[in-house]
Q: What sequence folds into this?
């Protein structure tokens, strides 16, 4: 109803209308793709020979490649532009990738860049008919807030997997600084060989928390992803008991993101 009222009451340019259509097509493509993966692609992949680890890797690589094609569709249809700095340093064994979460597509871009990544995802996505197929086939970790989740994530890192996590737990509220929960730092101290911060900015803001997909900005948005310098979690583990080390690492990460995001803020004319 809101979309229909806006279209009736305001005049929009042809490029804006096209981006609205292209954004809607992107969401439809994402949903239908998830169903196809669940009902066709993964059952076929499951028939191929290999153990559990090989099947998991095939599923993750399939999701990664399709996410990359999805990003390219959004780029070529004029929905977004993007810039990635330091992608070659993502995907190392035992690497915990920690990112802020300004938009809906952050996880899509990160998984697209890392061919065999694990990821901590919201519990609600496990029950969503459009996403549960890929999530379960790839054996991503449910962010259900339990102690078992922390153990599962740490075990994945100790096994040499790359793990993506968003310490905020949900998308950043526009205009506010990100607030990190301490769980990511606790996971890092338990199992990560290295921690790599990834700073994400979306300009102008779009696809934010509680924002409908059709409320698109006046121009196509720019997605900027910057991979930061590695952090050795053992530097913090040696400073004291686990709760203290976890708090100090979390504070360090929080300060890093606040500083880096400030550098990306537009300056006044």
A:
């Amino acid at each position: 109803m809101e979309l229909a009222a806006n279209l009736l009451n305001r005049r929009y340019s042809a490029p804006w209308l096209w981006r609205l259509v292209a954004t809607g097509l992107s969401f439809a493509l994402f949903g239908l793709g998830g169903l196809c993966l669940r009902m066709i692609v993964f059952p076929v992949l499951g028939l191929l020979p290999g153990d559990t680890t090989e099947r998991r890797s095939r599923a993750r690589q399939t999701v990664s490649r399709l996410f990359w094609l999805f990003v390219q569709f959004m780029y070529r249809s004029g929905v977004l532009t993007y810039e990635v700095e330091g992608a070659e340093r993502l995907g190392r064994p035992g690497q915990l990738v920690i990112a802020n979460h300004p938009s809906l597509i952050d996880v899509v871009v990160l998984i697209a860049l890392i061919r065999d990544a694990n990821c901590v995802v919201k519990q609600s996505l496990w029950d969503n008919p459009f996403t549960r197929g890929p999530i379960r086939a790839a054996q991503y970790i449910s962010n259900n807030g339990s102690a078992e989740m922390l153990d599962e994530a740490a075990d994945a890192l100790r096994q040499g997997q790359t793990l993506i996590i968003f310490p905020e737990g949900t998308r950043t509220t526009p205009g506010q600084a990100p607030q990190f929960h301490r769980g990511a730092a606790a996971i890092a101290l338990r199992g990560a060989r290295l921690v790599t911060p990834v700073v994400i900015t979306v300009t102008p803001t779009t696809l934010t928390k509680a924002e409908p997909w059709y409320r698109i900005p006046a121009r196509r948005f720019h997605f900027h992803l910057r991979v930061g310098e590695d952090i050795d979690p053992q530097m913090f583990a040696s400073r004291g008991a686990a709760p203290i080390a976890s708090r100090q690492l979390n504070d360090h990460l929080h300060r890093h993101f606040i500083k880096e995001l400030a550098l990306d803020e537009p300056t006044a004319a």
Observations:
- The chain has a mean pLDDT of 90.
